[in-house]
Design brief:
The longest helix is centred in the first third of the chain and has 27 residues. The protein is built from 11 helices and 11 strands. The chain has 2 domains: about 150 residues, no CATH class; about 210 residues, no CATH class.
Length: about 375
């Protein structure tokens, strides 16, 4: 039966110090993600176009966490500050509702800013309160944190609950234009950011992004199918059958997370035990899972359409090893772990089953990324 009581999964951060540690941890993690993506490009696992698309969403995640950090900066110290709710069992990330509320706040951000004192006015008032009244200006500090929150929302570039498709031209091959379509969602079922990349051959009369009829339909179709529970094969075949002049040749999905932390999350399994054994200092007590699924069209065939016509349909390659292809709905699936050095050392020492073939990216604050198999 589906789970209806999420009270044990979702946890509110009520303490200021703990809230700031949580956001400090994610600030480090999101900063590391772009370096890991650059390492994947160097290893030729991601192309330049892939990196440009993925980096856009990773940067957006960084901005989202920065925005939420401003919003909840005074949780536990001021009664109206609110409290971040995060999923401590499934993902380690903020719950889906947090991103919905942030999107709603963004719609009203300029109105809020217009009615608030400026940064300088708030800081001057803080100085007068500290020097003249010899009090801690908590209310003013909270007001400044909210102003910084709304200023961040006005700047934009956050990773939203829905990040609509964009198309990038990759080149032409005779009568075909090739586009990369990328989009992303925050999966409401597991509270994780998910990025999609699809390469499409376009045989339509007008290039897809400029086609006023097809492009809105494509965007709506892809967003409706951006559900983590759907297999890539289901998504690609549905797209192929709904658009006769668009031919998906490659579809990838990147799951960013879960994030494991001995201090914050309550997941079970070997990773939790590894983090406990690592006894890492504050800020380095984490491991992040990065999963890539890929589906490739191995060939195309002509099938009958209507009384006299035919259309091109893609035949997708499924994973041939162990009969897993039909189960995963993908040509391949690969998981990687991103973690600081101390948790990696604990993982290497314990060497739990199931982790030997997982790619490990070991990161450090000096910007170095080491890759291990």
């Amino acid at each position: 039966m589906p789970k209806t009581d999420l009270s044990q999964d979702h946890f509110k951060l009520e303490d200021t110090r703990v809230t700031r540690r949580y956001f400090g941890k994610f600030e480090r993690i999101t900063n590391h993600l772009n370096k890991v993506a650059a390492t994947m490009e160097a290893e030729r696992r991601l192309s330049r176009e892939d990196i440009q698309a993925v980096a856009r969403y990773l940067y957006g995640l960084n901005i989202t966490f920065r925005s939420l950090a401003h919003k909840y900066h005074f949780s536990g110290r001021f009664s109206h500050a609110g409290q971040l709710t995060f999923d401590r069992v499934e993902s380690g990330f903020p719950v889906y509702q947090e991103l919905l509320e942030m999107a709603n706040d963004a719609l009203q951000a300029e109105r809020h800013l217009a009615s608030m004192p400026s940064d300088d006015e708030l800081k001057d008032e803080m100085v007068r309160t500290i020097v003249g009244e010899q009090q801690i200006p908590t209310k003013l500090q909270y007001a400044l944190s909210q102003r910084l929150y709304y200023e961040e929302l006005v700047k934009g570039h956050q990773f939203w609950a829905r990040n609509d498709p964009q198309a990038v031209w990759l080149g032409n091959n005779r009568d075909r234009r090739t586009f990369q379509i990328h989009w992303a969602v925050y999966d409401s079922q597991v509270n994780l950011p998910t990025i999609y990349l699809m390469e499409v051959d376009d045989t339509g009369r007008t290039g897809l992004p400029k086609d006023e009829r097809r492009w809105p339909e494509v965007q709506a179709h892809l967003m409706a199918q951006a559900v983590g529970g759907l297999k890539l094969l289901t998504i690609a075949k549905g797209f192929d059958e709904d658009f006769d002049d668009l031919h998906p040749t490659r579809l990838r999905r990147f799951h960013i997370g879960p994030m494991y932390s001995h201090a914050f999350t309550r997941q079970t399994g070997p990773l939790r035990e590894v983090l406990e054994a690592a006894n890492s200092p504050v800020g380095e007590d984490w491991a992040l899972v990065w999963t890539e699924e890929e589906l490739i069209a191995e060939r195309a065939e002509r099938v009958k359409s209507g009384w006299f016509g035919t259309v091109e349909r893609q035949i997708f390659a499924l994973d041939p090893f162990g009969g897993q292809g039909a189960d995963t709905g993908a040509t391949r699936m690969e998981r990687a772990l991103i973690m600081p050095e101390r948790p990696y050392q604990a993982l290497a020492e314990r060497n739990p089953p199931g982790f030997r073939d997982v790619r490990k990216f070991v990161v450090s604050d000096n910007g170095r990324v080491l890759s291990y198999r």
